[in-house]
Structures are given as C-alpha cells and as structure tokens.
Amino acid sequence: MSAAGTKTFAAVDLGASSGRVMTGRVGPDTLRLTETHRFPNRPVHLPEGLRWDILGLYGGVLDGLRAAGPVDSLGIDSWAVDYGLLAADGSLLGNPVHYRDRRTEGVPEQVWATVPPDDLYRATGIQYAPFNTLYQLVAAQGTPQLTAARHLLLIPDLIAYWLTGEQGTELTNASTTQLIDAHTGDWNRPLADRLGIDLALFAPLRRPGDPAGTLLPAVQERTGLPGPVPVTAVGSHDTASAVAAVPAGRRERFAYLCTGTWSLAGLELDAPVTTEASRAANFTNELGIDGTVRFLRNIMGLWLLQECMRTWELTDVTPLLADAARMPALRYVVDAAAPEFLAPGDMPGRIAAACRGADGPVPRAPGEITRCVLDSLALAHRRAIREAQHLADREVDVVHLVGGGARNALLCQLTADACGVPVVAGPAEAAALGNVLVQARAHGLSGDLASTRELIAHTQSLTRYDPSGDPTAWEAAARRTEDARPLPA
Length: 489
Description:
Elements: E1 7-14, E2 18-27, E3 30-40, E4 44-46, E5 49-51, H1 54-68, E6 73-77, E7 83-86, H2 107-114, H3 117-124, H4 133-140, H5 144-148, E8 151-154, H6 155-164, E9 169-170, H7 171-174, E10 180-181, E11 186-187, H8 189-194, E12 205-206, E13 211-214, H9 217-223, E14 230-232, H10 238-244, E15 254-259, E16 263-269, H11 276-280, E17 284-287, E18 293-299, H12 303-312, H13 318-325, H14 347-357, H15 366-392, E19 398-403, H16 409-419, E20 423-425, H17 430-442, H18 449-459, E21 463-465, H19 471-480
C-alpha cells in the first residue's frame, strides 16, 4: 500500500465554507500532504432556518475517498458545536441546524436564569458563545425532532457513523458543547440535569487515537478502497487538529493563531483556567491532544472578508490584498469580535456602519474595507494573545500562525506588527496535517506531540515575519477598538 517504512492516511477535513479529502504519506523523516478532492460547503436557507447540506458533504467525502486510493487509515475533523439527531433505527432526523441560525436568540438568558454565567463557566471552562451546543439543545427542547431523537452525533462523528456503522463522541469536539467538565474530561451530569439535557443521547466518548470502526462493505464498494480500512479518531474539532500541527520547538514559549473562517488565538496549557477574570475576558478551555487544554478566544476571522467578497461577487482575493496594502495603516478599524458581524449578509455595510458608529472615517471602496478587516483582525489577535498571557501567567516569544491565513502575507505581517513579537506562518494545511499525524501515531509511526511538531517543522514550508512599524500607533488603535460591552454578570 505504501513504501517500506511509510504509511498513507486520508484526512477528511470539513470547514465552514468547503470540505476536502487530503492524503498524507508519513515516515520517519517523511511528511507529504496531497489534496485529492475539494468540494463546496454551502449552507441552505430553508423556511425553518439555516441548515447544513450534510448529505452533500457526505457525498463529497465519498468522492474524495475514491480519489484518494488505498490508505492505511482515515480520520475526520470539522467545525464544532453542531450535530445531527438520529431516530432509534439510526436514520437522520433532518438536516443539522447551522450555528449561525437565529434559534438561540434569547436562549442564553433563559439558561442563566437556571445556571448563572459564573457557575456555568466554573463547571465547564467554556466561553460564552450564543451557538454553543448547550444553548442549541435548550432551544430545541420540546421540538418534534429532539423529542423523537434517540441519538445525537456531532458532525465528524456523524460522518464516521455513516462510514462505519459505529457511534462515538470524540472528546476534543465534545468539549466545545459546554457540557464537559474541563477538569475531569467527562460529562458534567449535574449541569445537564439542571438544564433538562439528556446526556444519554450522546454516544460513548472517544479520545484522539482511539479506533472508530472499519469502513462498511457498501462504503468500500462505493469508494473502491480495498479493505479492511480502519477509521481512527483524531482531534475531530479542526482547531484541535490544527494546534497539534503547530511547528513549535520543545522549549519554545509560543502562542498560536489558527486562522480561517475563524481566528482562534491562545495558548496550549496543561490545565484549564476557570477564574472569574478568564470568564470576564471570554476565554475558553477546550480539550486538546494528549490531555492538553486549548486556552483561547474565538475571533470572527476571515469570515469578515469572505462575506464582503460574497457581497461584491468576487472570488479572487489577490487584487483586494494588493489594494489593501496600499491603503493607510489603521485608518479604519472595528472590533472584529463584535457580535453584529456573526450573521451572513451585507458585511461591507455592517463594517461601514460600525466605523460610522464609532465616529471614525468610513471605508467605502473594497480595498479600504479589506484593509479595515485585516488591521482589525491584527488588533483582535494582539488583544487576545496579550490577555491570554496575563490570565495564564505565561509569556510568549513567538506566535505560530497556522491555517489558511498563513497564505495571507499582509495579515501575517500586520499580526507581527500588532503583537510586537515574530510570527511564524505555516503550515496552511494545519488541520489536515494534525489529523494525519494523530492517525500516524495510532498506527505505529511518529512519537509524542513534540516529535510530531519537529517533523512538521522539518518538512513543511514556514515563513517568519518580524515586527516592524510604530508600536505606539498600534497601541492607539487598540484603544479605539476596546470592547466595552459587558459579559453576563
């Protein structure tokens, strides 16, 4: 199947705007990643709300596995929090609801009436986000679908179930539901009971590296893969896989930025930080590979630019970035974490309105708005990384920027300038690489987490950006975007 000393693994990597199947060939000094198939992920607006086209995604996965050819294992990662509901016979009860759907409006306040926000944070360590699975399940209470459901599978676990016929709940993704105790790594049953959430819906927990079944004969026939083909649990939350692929040295004091539709900025810790100060700063403690904790803040990320391009009906970002590079620095800035940017639709108009509401100059041309987005993201990165260091009492000397944003040289340089420390950009395909390397470890290749990171550092293309420019200009701009909105008391 593979050359002596190497094995081949398929990584199914589902993002909010596209999915792909990658193959990785791994050996003692080898790590080569190839994209075999990419397919769109287009959410669908139905009369009842915004839904994922999960059947289209599954079809894309099967097509990708057919294109991948023989593999020694496959693993699946995706975005977090969303899920599919299954009937007693395992059939899907409707398309999964999209986390940007409006059904959770007003639900957090309903939850806090039963479990105050500070109690909720101490119990789970998870930041406030209106789309967390906990709020989605409370919003769904009493609906025909949830009433009929006998099983609940998070998105990557749902795909794995269709491939293997076996159900499980992978831990790194489960931790984003706001139903896991970050200290114990197990379900927080008292919390679920207080909110009327039935944890029996969830399949047993799995951890990265655990076996997750074998491809069903019908799937093998559809994909043409010679069997048996094991499915291996990976860091099924794509951020967990991406952080596993951060090419940090063994003694490096680093922060990470996982960039794409979202920016996830934070630190890798050995234990969660569940202080009141951490809650007030809206930092989350998601579980990672090998018992680590991903202490991070969610930032809107390149979603802002993606939505602008959708409005402008543009597909090529290169001319926009060239225009943005010629624009004056920090003239237009907004709070990139503001909730008014969460929903789809007319992002340029909302950015202009935010600038106008702050009594600042208003960007109008696409190049001006693009520069506003990138400057604002760099400021949000700066704030998150500085606050993470303070809250965790951990200093950093370098920021590792991984994911799709690593290809955006302007964003990387602006982030280095804003943070005042070097940025090492790459790999861009961090989630797929982390997915592959967890499989490789489970199948006898590679060593501990530090060893897998060394392999990435030695085999992947990385670019260093040193800070430049005037730090006082960034400090002044940061003061303009300070978020004064209080979190729940």
